Amino acid sequence: MRVVPTSDVLEVATDSVEGTRALARAIAAVVEAGDVFVLGGELGAGKTAFTQGLGAALGVTGRIVSPTFTIERIHQGRFRLHHLDVYRLDRIHEALDLDLDEALDDGDVAVIEWGESIAGVLGRDHLFVGIGLGAGDDDRTITLAVHGPSWERRLAGLARIVDAVGPRQVDSTC
Ligand SMILES: Nc1ncnc2c1ncn2[C@@H]1O[C@H](COP(=O)(O)OP(=O)(O)OP(=O)(O)O)[C@@H](O)[C@H]1O
Ligand SMILES: [Mg+2]
């Protein structure tokens, strides 16, 4: 997992796919129009599982699966939810051709798997969600890092959510 250079980092452990979805469902309570989630973590870490929880809590009724054969899937819930996967590097350009910026300005929400590469180019406030593998098959350490004022404002709320979901530590050293 990539180290995020910010002091505004929360960490929480989950030990099941349902635990990761539950964390995402809880985070959905603080989602606002125009939000961007950048998801990191290796193949099979749980990025899509996180998106499923987030989408469900935002009222998406259709099935959320990895956008493997298409750059983006759009779901309708409380917000229009753009689900992108930019695993392949050539997808970065495809992703940047999607007028995502305009959609976000219009109040849509985006979740970008493997999104670290385009987060800087997008240049928008975002929540980085890094999912690291743990000791057991189902263990994950989920790092939440706020980037930009709109997420910094919600850090305390996020900390309360994380507290309610599982054990956490605030790491101010990285
Ligand atoms: N604690 C956990 N959190 C999330 N997923 C878990 C956990 N424990 C086990 N899993 C399993 O790990 C897999 C995660 O798959 P998922 O498609 O969400 O990963 P991904 O990060 O999106 O992968 P990809 O990079 O291929 O898109 C699922 O099979 C899920 O059941
Ligand atoms: Mg995925």
Task: Tell me briefly what this model is.
With 174 residues, this protein is an alpha/beta fold. It is 33% helix and 26% strand. It binds adenosine-5'-triphosphate and magnesium ion.
How would you describe what is shown here?
Helices cover 33% and strands 26% of the residues. With 174 residues, the protein is an alpha/beta fold. The chain has one domain (9-167): P-loop containing nucleotide triphosphate hydrolases (Rossmann fold, 3-Layer(aba) Sandwich), CATH 3.40.50. Helix 1 (17-27) crosses helix 2 and helix 1 (17-27) runs antiparallel to helix 7 (155-165). The protein starts with 8 loop residues before the first strand and ends with a strand. The model is unreliable at 1-6 and 168-174 (pLDDT under 50). Bound molecules: adenosine-5'-triphosphate and magnesium ion (MG). The site of adenosine-5'-triphosphate has 18 residues, from helix 1 and helix 2.
